[in-house]
Write a structure and sequence with these properties.
The complex is a heterotetramer, with two copies of chain A (318 residues) and two copies of chain B (323 residues). Chain A has helices spanning 3-28, 43-51, 67-72, 76-84, 116-131, 149-160, 180-183, 208-223, 253-257, 261-271, 277-300, and strands at residues 59-60, 137-142, 165-171, 174-175, 178-179, 200-204, 229-234. By secondary structure, chain A is α/β, with parallel strands linked by helices. Chain B starts with a strand and ends with a helix. The chains are: A alpha/beta (318), B alpha/beta (323). At the B-C interface, helix 3 and helix 10 of B face loops of C. The complex binds thiamine diphosphate (TPP) (2 copies) and magnesium ion (MG) (2 copies).
Chain lengths: 318, 323, 318, 323
């Protein structure tokens, strides 16, 4: 891919990592509830995937990580405010980090029940097809979530209708403590594409070029009116399921740590001469500063009124 | 005034909604080419095209879930589930996605979705027979219509499609062939306005759909005995017009709810509890409910009839209450 | 297959056809509600599939037809009694023809919501594996039902657990009025087996040998502990969705009628010399007599007490 | 007497059930190797093997549906859904398969299934916070346990596993770490027997789980003011011991139900309606309910606390009722 794009993916991935690490520390300090499922290890692929789309193509995501939001430039302080129960957030105290939303940036939210997004994405594809030709709906989900029945119903109907949807499975090998091999009867989740007559491809989550290309191909197919695709990213979950998960069920934690795609990208950026070590260090410092500024901005926001509990349910007078 | 059937009324509502607003789409199993297993969508695909009126796979989760997504994306989907019972088959999508997608994202979206739910006991067995309105009325974020007349069927369905909120629309299958007057010029009362179908002063009956018809017949029998029963049709269960019931019961002092759902924690439970909360000084008579006695609905007609509240039971209950 | 088995499949298929045709007439006469979904065209395959199993291997079926029950010798008058609301039935007025049950003959019932049987079958497979090694659970379902999410959840988990389950899709090309091509994104539903790492085979429903063999292979695999299989029978629906369906949505009705597997089997039986025309005629007469006797027996039963409405829900004192 | 936590009590019940009956199996997401996300099944896989205690895919429909099938096949499955809310995600399997498989097949089967449902608001958002007991109590064919103490948690879970009926077992997550005495020799009261947790004569409060604890604290405050409140813990919602409540309310003349479910058509609605049906002459005071005010439960703690009934609200309600 072009150098500037690669640099941008690196910058956003770094910012995501710094942001989430700071989030975890805030959680330990009790400033926000510890409800983040860290995306460490998956942010490079998430951001590369988003880079393959138009800036406002709708994104439905799952619970792991904030790379999607950072990729689209969602306000960091807003995400923190969501979690801290303060004003200035995106969901008015309703959904914390789980339901970050920013429709102007194409961030269309998350289903708290895993697999709930598959079916929503189908309808969004139906609307895109009719109202916004050329728009592509992307839905990210985990290996674990791919065993929900909604996966089947959604992919089948999306394929029948040739909807402009791209399904991206981030297979990090684990669903909380359950390894994919014990929950899933097939090695590559992408193989399930056969059952819906659509392309299914596997890409390595360490390789942003491969991810970008795969999503581009799928998005072009979607825009042509040829229907959905299934992309499986072989990913690595560097941290616990949730921020403070001891992970004692996990024999592969050390091995995983050695496979950090962000480290690989950092090394590539430096060895290819795209940035010097010093430039990377100052980028890191800039990310840290940006995150600190977001923390300060969040903390300056007033707490939400408890009466927000009664808002945002029904549209009044409709 | 014209007289049309309840099913024709629904068909007209869909037809007009499709004509008025090109964001309206209609889909579900068999609704396209065939016009629906109960013929409510007859002719609509031919008129509006398969892009707007279409068949679906047998996939209730995605039927409803895609409806939420399509609504979020700017369409106004009207989804048919073939049997109201299937609302529980798509439980996550009805209660969490339709009911809460807007809420959990802090009001970022509107969800103008209508799910049509043909309900009622016709001997098709425990999973194809219920009137599961109570599940909806218990759940935040969902509106709920229960039209009893052709005029309401048409008017409420049109309102439901225009609403920016998700609406669960219960059509009673045993009403499809019933006829009634419809005044094309009249404005439809908004959601949350009950209709007093008969005035009276000795007791109040709350009932809708098939049970409303039974209640009205029972009221005639009772009138011949000198008992004047007020009969209230709530028309929508969410929002719920409790005020009309309260005013009636304050006048009559006695309330009977007749419903085709299960009794325990049914709609009647809520009405009884609210009356007890808000009208105790006016309550002359113990509250009464007639409902399905907390067993599933079998398929043999004798068994079904045994548990559906009957006209005779309504008459007997009012006699007993007012004794 | 052996001649005696073929003759038996023919006899049972004929009996099923005669029984269901009589049922439809009874429905027209108002004796029973018209809730039968006629299995005409599918009974040969249904009966051949059952013939591949042990006599008490559990069967979960879908709504179309009664071949499974006739194959196992369920009392015809009992099935009629179920529908007529009389004593002597199998489900005490609760389920009519939809929920015929006869556990002694391995008939374990039906889910009224399509696709509900997939998940039940998994649990029955779990129980078989632990309590009755060697037992195989078979589940029949339609092409339409295969688009329910439960298909996906069940086949995946059955495969993970290597359960002794055999999944048989009777693909008759229609789900009520919707052709399979408009609801299903793949030509062969058997291809979905790839997504669960299990065998998926297609067989012709006109060919009882092929059906028998496919189910035998799958059952042996299941007994060996190698897990489930998916078999797709290309079937033909000769009648309407329900007894009195006018089928005006159906362009292929005449073509379907020409493909009646029972007629093909009748011709084969005669042309191969297994039975003479006269023998077939007298078999037909015997089937008719058996069905008439069942009707008489059913009509001699008292009507169910309406109090049965309150029976069979909870086990009392447990 | 020993003191143990509620979560230890549940773990012991599972342990003993697995030891007593080799047909008992325990499964769900993460219950095997990890011992469950709330550590209720800790140690059980090591002790009984992965054939009897095992992990599952994230597939709630088959988790519950396979439970029904396994029960029909002669096992006694105990299934964990990670959050009670997911009961609606597996709606068909809970309400139609577990609740009706026996019924619709004329009693041919028994369905000795237990579904464990960790419930309660802990700030995890609208789909991970509810106490959805009302959906179960409204539905025929399902038993429903709501243990409030470690002793009941253990006793009722053991009974549930031994029962030949399907049992929805609600464990409140905010009780897991609470401790209480347990008398290993004492027989557990059967399903359908409420416990009077405190005697009183001025008003009756019905509450369970976290709300029971709040009611008991409120009762202490009220006692200091001279108001003696009777506090009843139903222990099981199906079967439901209405008689104990009726007797109490006939004595006190005033009833308040405090629950963590949605208010409209909640458990309190049923209690109120039945009292109004059966005890009108004894009802001195309007009925009162404290419950979630028919909005989903957001994630910010301030919002959650705003809608969960509080000790102060209970105190205020009783004061107002008895004024
Ligand atoms: C329907 C449903 N079941 C279970 C859960 C609880 N849960 C949340 S995340 C998770 C694991 C998800 O695994 P995967 O989909 O692989 O995503 P990952 O966490 O690995 O990114 C589980 C079981 C849920 N939220 N929804
Ligand atoms: C969950 C659910 N959705 C819809 C129905 C209504 N329905 C009953 S049979 C049927 C068509 C089934 O098609 P298929 O599975 O192909 O079986 P076939 O009738 O062709 O034998 C439909 C839509 C149902 N019973 N359950
Ligand atoms: Mg994973
Ligand atoms: Mg079919």
């Amino acid at each position: 891919m072009r150098n500037d794009l690669l640099a941008e993916i690196f910058r956003k991935s770094l910012l995501t990592r710094v942001f989430e690490d700071r989030f975890v520390r805030l959680a330990m300090e009790g400033v926000v509830p510890p409800l983040l499922h860290p995306g460490a290890g998956q942010e490079v692929a998430q951001i590369a995937a988003i880079a393959a789309l138009q800036d406002d193509d709708p994104v439905l995501y799952a619970h792991r990580g904030t790379g999607y939001m950072v990729a689209r430039g969602v306000s960091l302080s807003a995400m923190l405010a969501d979690c801290a129960g303060r004003a200035g957030g995106t969901n008015n105290g309703k959904g914390g980090i789980m339901h970050v939303v920013d429709t102007a940036r194409g961030i269309f939210g998350e289903s708290g029940t895993l697999g709930g997004g598959f079916v929503i994405s189908v309808g969004m594809g139906m609307a895109a097809k009719r109202k916004r030709p050329g728009q592509v709906v992307i839905h990210f989900f985990g290996d674990g979530g791919s065993n929900r029945g909604t996966f089947h119903e959604a992919l089948n109907w999306a394929a029948v209708q040739k909807l402009p949807c791209v399904y991206v499975c981030e297979n990090n090998g684990w669903a909380v403590s359950v390894p994919v091999s014990e929950s899933t009867a097939v090695e590559n989740i992408a193989d399930r594409a056969h059952g819906y007559g659509i392309p299914g491809v596997v890409v390595d989550g360490v390789d942003p070029d491969a991810v970008l290309d795969a999503v581009r191909v799928a998005a072009e197919r979607a825009r042509r009116g040829d229907g959905p695709s299934l992309i499986e990213i072989k990913a690595v979950r560097l941290r616990g399921h949730y921020a403070t998960d001891p992970q004692d069920y996990r024999p592969d934690a050390a091995e995983a740590a050695s496979k950090d795609p962000l480290e690989a990208l950092r090394a590539r950026i430096i060895s290819s001469g795209l940035m010097s070590e010093a430039e990377v260090a100052s980028l890191q410092a800039a990310c840290e500063a940006e995150v600190e500024a977001a923390v300060v901005e969040m903390q300056a926001q007033p707490l939400l009124s408890a009466e927000a509990a009664f808002e945002d349910l029904l549209v009044q007078g409709a | 005034m014209r007289e049309i059937t309840y099913s024709k009324a629904l068909n007209e509502a869909l037809d007009e909604a499709l004509a008025e607003d090109e964001d309206v789409i209609v889909y579900g199993c068999d609704v396209g080419r065939w016009g629906g297993i109960f013929n409510i969508t007859t002719g609509l695909q031919a008129k509006y095209g398969a892009d707007r009126v279409f068949d679906s796979p047998i996939s209730e989760n995605v039927l409803v879930g895609a409806g939420v997504g399509a609504a979020v994306g700017g369409l106004r989907p009207v989804v048919e589930l073939q049997f109201a019972d299937f609302l529980l088959t798509a439980g996550d999508e009805i209660f969490f996605k339709a009911g809460m997608w807007r809420f959990m994202h802090g009001g970022a979206f509107t969800v103008p979705l209508v799910v049509r739910l043909p309900s009622g006991a016709t001997g098709a067995g425990p999973e194809h027979s219920t009137c599961p309105e109570a599940y909806v009325m218990h759940s935040p974020g969902l509106l709920c219509c229960v039209p009893s007349t052709p005029a309401d069927a048409k008017g409420l369905l049109k309102l439901a499609i225009r609403s920016d909120n998700p609406v669960m629309f219960f059509e009673h299958r045993r009403l499809y062939q019933t006829r009634g007057p419809i005044d094309d010029a009249a404005a439809v009362a908004p959601f949350g306005k009950a209709a007093v179908r008969r005035e009276g002063r000795h007791a109040t009956i709350v009932a809708w759909q098939v049970m409303l018809n039974r209640a009205l017949k029972a009221a005639e029998t009772l009138a011949a005995e000198g008992l004047d029963v007020e009969v209230i049709d709530p028309r929508t269960l969410a929002p719920f017009d409790f005020e009309t019931i309260l005013a009636s019961v304050k006048k009559t002092g006695a309330c009977l709810v007749v419903e085709e759902g299960y009794r325990r924690l049914g709609v009647g439970a809520e009405i009884g509890a609210r009356l007890f909360e808000e009208a105790l000084p006016y309550l002359d008579r113990p509250f009464r409910r007639l409902a399905i006695p907390d067993v599933p609905i079998g398929s043999a007609p004798a068994l079904v009839n045994r548990i559906l509240p009957s006209e005779d039971e309504i008459v007997a209950a009012v006699r007993e209450m007012t004794r």
